């Protein structure tokens, strides 16, 4: 098999579309389609079910994907071993992260990364969703769950806490709840239930089985801004809320504990620029661990 054809196969498998794969590879989409057809001809099997909506791996395609990713990992390892270790670390690293961690914690500290590794380009995608590392939607994912399946490398980053917060103006106007039952007489800020992508993010269930939110917002930062504006009481990340002079914690004994993990695909182990960013994030968090509790 031709390695270039395998690269094309991987790009289509990860993007699910010939056109998207062509853009990623920087080649014409007709070339991608032609090479893919040639690979299927060489292997005498159908690798994708193609339609106007995209390309879906067949059973044989799924089998090839496992072997193709191993080939890719070996190729990356060889490149890393042969490369001159004196050459500056460079490349593009895409980080997928929840918006609270990505925007409130990581983004303000990227200047330090730039000074340390001036030739690394970071693409930060701080959105409330999960990322597929096998499809290369990100090189590094910050998650709230440790992955249990796939060829992934996971490391616990830090434990963090959440608590109940309200703005001082809201509490002055509406009073401060003294017990969980008192919350039912207050306006509550919460998330959009059907957009919660992990059971671990169903924080409110640890306080009430049902959290009758007056305002439902799909991002952690959006909830924080709504609470700061006086919209009501919400469950906020401690590392975001406790440093805000406009916010006050209520029912401080009601604390919710979670953890962040860094996750990368096994095939990126040899990549110096990905490892450099992983180590940078780990170092940042270790240095400022106290803000997360």
UniProtKB/TrEMBL annotation:
UniProt GO molecular function = DNA-binding transcription factor activity; sequence-specific DNA binding
Gene Ontology biological process terms in this record: DNA-templated transcription
Key word DNA-binding present in the record?
yes
Q: Which UniProt keywords apply?
A: DNA-binding, Transcription, Transcription regulation
UniProt-listed InterPro entries: LysR-type_TF_proteobact-type, LysR_HTH_N, LysR_subst-bd, WH-like_DNA-bd_sf, WH_DNA-bd_sf
Does Electron transport show up as a keyword for this record?
A: no
Q: HTH lysR-type domain: from which residue to which, for each copy?
A: 1-58
Tell me its family: Belongs to the LysR transcriptional regulatory family.
Q: What is the protein name for this chain?
A: LysR family transcriptional regulator
